[in-house]
From TrEMBL:
Belongs to the LysR transcriptional regulatory family. One of its GO terms (molecular function) is DNA-binding transcription factor activity. Keywords: DNA-binding, Transcription, Transcription regulation. This is LysR family transcriptional regulator. Residues 1-58 form the HTH lysR-type domain. The keyword Transcription regulation applies. The keyword DNA repair does not apply. The lineage of its organism: Bacteria, Pseudomonadati, Pseudomonadota, Gammaproteobacteria, Pseudomonadales. Pfam families: HTH_1, LysR_substrate. InterPro entries: LysR_HTH_N, LysR_subst-bd, WH-like_DNA-bd_sf, WH_DNA-bd_sf. It comes from the Bacteria. One of its GO terms (biological process) is positive regulation of gene expression.
C-alpha cells in the first residue's frame, strides 16, 4: 500500500463513508473511490464491503490495521519533526523534566528567568525519563532535566548537581532533633517502605542498597513517581527513599540523608552535535544553582516544616 492508499483507508475507517473520507481529505468522492479501488487491486482483496448501504471493514483489512497504524504514527512523527525543524531557533526554550524535578525546580527558576528576560518564552512539560529522551530525539523539547543517565549516542549529558537519596518519614517517626542528620541503613531493617516501580531508573540502586538488611524492609506498596511516594508517606503508609527535591516539597514529614550515602546526579540532556543559544547555558546555570541549594538544605534541615515529636522514637 502507498501512503495515499493508507490515508484513504484511515479516512474511511474514521468517517465510515466515501463522502465523509472525501470531506476529511478535501478531495472529491470519485477521487477517494478511485484510490480505494487502486489499493484493493494492488492488495488483491477488498478493504471494505457495502452492507445495507454502509461500508464495513473486511477481515483482511482488520488484519492490516496494526501495521497501518504504525505507518500512520510514523508519518505523524515525521510531520511533527518537520514542524520543529521549521521553528525559528532561539525564540522559545522548550524544557522538559521528570515530575518531581519540574515541581521542585521550574517555579522558582522560570519565574526568575521570565522576570529577567521578558522577551523570551519558555514551554514547560513533564514526562518520565524514557519519554524525555524520545521528546528530545523528536525535537519536541530542547533540554531535559532528569536523574537518569541515558546511554544514547544522540544525546549530550551534562551533570548539574550531585546529591543523595533521603529517607522520608511521617512527622513524629523520629525525634525532631534528628531531622537533617544521617540515617544509617541498618535503621531501615524491618521498616515498612513505599517502594519504587521497577521501571524507575533508581529502583535497582535502592534494591541493591537494601539487599543485605535483616530483616528485610517490608514493601507492600510500589509507586511510579516520587511525588506519589511522598503523598503515601504523608498519609502514614510507611517510609520512602526518594530524591531530595521531592522531599523538600513535603509537609508533615521528617527528612534524613542516608548513611552510607546513596548518590544521585541531576543531568541536563540535549541533542548531540548541536549548538545551543547562550540563553540555554545561562538557564541551565540557574537550574544547577537552584538544585544545589535544595540539596544542601536537606542536610541542614533548612526550609523544612518543623516536626512535632512523639514519645518513644529514635
Amino acid at each position: 500500500m502507498r501512503l495515499r492508499h493508507i490515508e484513504v483507508f484511515q479516512a474511511i475507517r474514521q468517517t465510515g463513508s466515501i463522502s465523509g473520507a472525501a470531506q476529511l481529505l478535501h478531495v472529491t468522492q470519485p477521487a477517494v473511490s478511485k484510490i480505494l479501488q487502486h489499493a484493493e487491486a494492488q492488495l488483491g482483496f477488498p478493504l471494505f464491503l457495502r452492507v445495507r448501504g454502509k461500508l464495513q471493514i473486511t477481515p483482511e483489512a482488520l488484519a492490516l490495521e496494526r501495521e497501518v497504524d504504525k505507518v500512520s504514527d510514523s508519518v505523524e512523527g515525521v510531520r511533527r519533526l518537520a514542524a520543529s525543524l521549521r521553528r525559528q531557533p532561539g525564540i522559545t526554550l522548550r524544557i522538559g523534566a521528570t515530575p518531581a524535578l519540574a515541581l521542585s525546580l521550574f517555579p522558582a527558576v522560570i519565574s526568575q528567568w521570565a522576570e529577567r528576560h521578558p522577551q523570551s518564552e519558555c514551554e514547560l512539560s513533564s514526562y518520565h525519563s524514557r519519554e524525555l529522551v524520545q521528546q528530545l530525539l523528536m525535537r519536541e523539547i530542547d533540554v531535559a532535566l532528569t536523574l537518569r543517565h541515558p546511554e544514547h549516542p544522540g544525546l549530550n549529558v551534562q551533570p548539574l548537581a550531585h546529591g543523595v537519596l533521603v529517607a522520608l518519614a511521617p512527622t513524629g517517626y523520629w525525634r525532631e532533633e534528628s531531622q537533617g542528620l544521617p540515617l544509617t541503613v541498618d535503621a531501615l531493617a524491618g521498616a515498612t517502605l513505599i517502594g519504587l516501580s521497577s521501571s524507575d531508573p533508581l529502583a535497582a540502586q535502592v534494591n541493591n542498597y537494601l539487599k543485605n538488611l535483616e530483616p528485610a524492609p517490608r514493601i507492600g506498596i510500589r509507586v511510579q513517581t516520587y511525588s506519589l511516594a511522598r503523598a503515601m508517606v504523608e498519609a502514614g503508609a510507611g517510609l520512602a527513599l526518594i530524591d531530595p527535591f521531592t522531599a523538600l516539597g513535603s509537609q508533615h514529614t521528617v527528612v534524613r540523608p542516608l548513611s552510607p550515602p546513596l548518590p544521585i546526579t541531576l543531568y541536563a540532556l540535549t541533542r548531540a552535535n548541536e549548538s545551543h543559544p547562550h540563553a540555554m547555558e545561562e538557564l541551565l546555570g540557574h537550574f544547577a544553582t537552584r538544585a544545589r541549594e535544595r540539596i544542601a538544605s536537606v542536610s541542614k534541615g533548612v526550609g523544612l516544616e518543623k516536626a512535632q515529636p512523639k514519645q518513644g522514637l529514635m
